[in-house]
Amino acid sequence: MVKHKNTLFLLAIGAFGLTLAKNTVDMILGNGYFLEQHEVTTADGYILTMFRIPGSPANPVVKGKNVAFLMHGLLSSSADLVVAGPGKAIAYMLVDAGYDVWLGNARGNTNSRRHIFHDPDARKTNFWDFSWHEIGYFDLPAMIDYTLAYTGRTTLHYVGHSLGTTSFFVMASTRPDYNKKIRSMHALAPVAFMSNLRSPFVRAFAPFVHQLERVTNLLGVNEFLPSNEMMVLGGQRLCEDESPFQEVCANVLFLIAGYNSPQLNRSLIPAILANTPAGASKYELIHYAQGYNSGRFRQYDFGLSVNQARYGSIRPPDYPLRRVTAPVALHYSDNDLLADVSDVRKLYSYLPNSIGLFRVPDPRWTHLDFVYGIDANTFLYERVISLMKRYN
């Protein structure tokens, strides 16, 4: 059963001296937008935090606005959706376009590290026993239901990046009733099929994924790249403007997701590293590696015996993408090392009600440029908002 909690309503006109963007709240208030914080408890006990931006001094809060729900990527949080600032970040652009904007946070990240029973910081805990399957099956439905109930709407627009697309396809295929609640879905760097990904990081460890799972289980390692104060402080100090290490920080980002130097605003690096990595379960990464190894978009592979008990088959079942009937727009790029063009086209072939395939007009555009790119507003977000208008 889903439990709802509305915790606070906050208003800022930008006069509070919030100069350092430490988290989602600081950034939204510091930029003068209205903010509400909400909590929802999933059917399996995870307590998730959502942020709502219902308007700004230039766009007053009124009832009946169309709702846009935004979902972040792997190792990220709602901060990614506002870090680029007004006129640049997708969340602010949607508010300025007249939408009631809601930012989701998946279980396990810095904003959603609570459970009604389990302690995420305990050495022996079941808190981290989830992959992105559970995010799609439990988290998204809980947050979408809460958002619709609170706003009194029956449908919303969904915008997801990376993991935010994977989890959507899990939800829409395994819980198809949710398709009718989606007015339009916009997949930024969509990740489902992964057999052609070119990320050296994933390709390096994917062949050893089973050994990795056994070793981390023996060592009691549950969380992958957790956020901590030392990393936040280091990111701010080492990567700030005028720092000789700023280019090192930039190249760490490039190593993970591809190189496109002209699209990275170096001044944003401290704020980015103050919020990313935001923490995730190791099983999320392992689940992705399994998809790369198998070439299939399917549920978590627990091994032959557990699969048989859980699924009634020695192999995990494929996600039935033909059941995804919501209107879906796939936004992709040529230089995305994690969402290869051929894999995106394969996904497109499975979707029965696709709005279309939309290429970012920059041949160097990478996976992280979808949220951090200097020209994301003109190359991508303006088109997303234009497409959304068709479904209002």
Description:
With 392 residues, this protein is an alpha/beta fold. Helix content is 36%, strand content 16%. Strands 1, 2, 3, 4, 5, 6, 7, 8, 11 and 12 form a ten-stranded mixed beta sheet that branches. Helix 12 links the parallel strand 11 and strand 12.
The class by helix and strand makeup works out as: alpha/beta
pLDDT averaged residue by residue: 87
Q: What is the C-alpha radius of gyration, as a whole number of Å? A: 20 Å
Q: Span from first to last CA?
A: 31 Å
| SSE pattern, N- to C-terminal | EHEEEHEEHEHEHHEHHHEHHEHEHH
Query: How many beta-strand runs?
Result: 12
What fraction strand?
15-25%
* Number of distinct helices: 14
Largest sheet: 10 strands, mixed
Helix content: 25-40%
Are there runs of 5+ residues with pLDDT below 50, and where?
Answer: 1-5, 7-21, 229-235
Quick one: overall form?
Answer: globular
Describe the structure concisely.
With 392 residues, this protein is an alpha/beta fold.
Write a concise keyword list for the protein shown above.
ten-stranded mixed sheet; 392 residues; disordered N terminus; alpha/beta; two-stranded antiparallel ribbon; 36% helix
List the helices and strands and how they pair.
Layout: E1 3-10, H1 24-30, E2 35-41, E3 46-53, E4 67-71, H2 90-96, E5 100-103, E6 114-115, H3 132-151, E7 156-161, H4 163-174, E8 182-188, H5 200-205, H6 209-219, E9 223-224, H7 229-239, H8 246-257, H9 269-275, E10 280-281, H10 282-294, H11 304-311, E11 328-332, H12 341-350, E12 354-359, H13 369-372, H14 376-389
Parallel strand pairs: 4-5, 4-7, 7-8, 8-11, 11-12
Antiparallel strand pairs: 1-2, 2-3, 3-5, 3-6, 9-10
Helix pairs in contact: 3-4, 6-10, 7-9
